[in-house]
Amino acid sequence: MNKPKPDPIDPEKVRALALGVVKADRFPYLATIDGDQPRLRPISPVKTEEFTVYVANLRSYHKTVEIEANPKVELCYLDDGHNQVRITGAAAVVTDRDVLREIWDANPLLRQYLGNIDNPELILYRITPSRVRYMQEWALEYYEVPGSSA
């Protein structure tokens, strides 16, 4: 069987293609480390600014312990065409009340589930990218996304 040959990608379009994948995937996967064991789970970002991703979590969830021990994380986004974006970065707790309020006000599910913004279980992470890569389905090679790191 012959290996499929993807269409070539114009390097000037890589950033826009990557942003399109991020926009299309509502439930990307978040990878963390638990000791020496990788952990992967789908998440639902509460805000995305290009490649900076905000994730709400509960303090009692185990991924909170994992991120506290090692804030290096990776997100993987996949669209319906199987194109993918991988965002490598670091997760940091958001303490800016204005940012928290903006996200709280824009997310009815957070409000319904947690009741109020001062719920001690609520923790918000900002994942700041250090590297973003895009891969077209079947290409089997990543393109570095220009201008995507902090």
Walkthrough of the structure:
The protein is α+β, with helices and mostly antiparallel strands. It has one domain: Electron Transport, Fmn-binding Protein, Chain A (Pnp Oxidase, Chain A). 24% of the residues lie in helices and 37% in strands. It has helices spanning 14-24, 62-69, 97-106, 108-114; strands at 29-34, 37-42, 47-49, 52-58, 72-78, 84-93, 122-135, 143-144. Strands 1, 2, 3, 4, 5, 6, 7 and 8 form an 8-stranded antiparallel beta sheet that branches. A hairpin with a 5-residue loop joins strand 5 and strand 6 (84-93). The protein is elongated and about 55 Å long. 25% of the residues are buried. The model has no long low-confidence stretch (mean pLDDT 93).
Descriptive keywords:
150 residues; alpha+beta; 4 helices; 24% helix
Q: The CATH topology, please? A: Pnp Oxidase, Chain A
Tell me the overall shape.
Answer: elongated
Query: Structural class, judged by helices and strands?
Result: alpha+beta
Number of strands: 8
Number of helices: 4
> What percent of residues adopt helix (DSSP H or I)?
10-25%
How would a crystallographer describe the biggest sheet?
8 strands, antiparallel
CATH architecture label? Roll
Going by CATH, what is the homologous superfamily?
Answer: Electron Transport, Fmn-binding Protein, Chain A
User: Gyration radius, to the nearest Å?
Assistant: 17 Å
Q: Please provide the ordered H/E string of secondary-structure elements.
A: HEEEEHEEHHEE
Outline the low-pLDDT stretches: none
**Quaternary structure of the protein:** single chain
CATH class category: Mainly Beta
SS strand fraction: 35-45%
State mean pLDDT (0 to 100 scale). Answer: 93
Taking the alpha carbons of the first and last residues, their distance comes to 42 Å
Total domain modules: 1
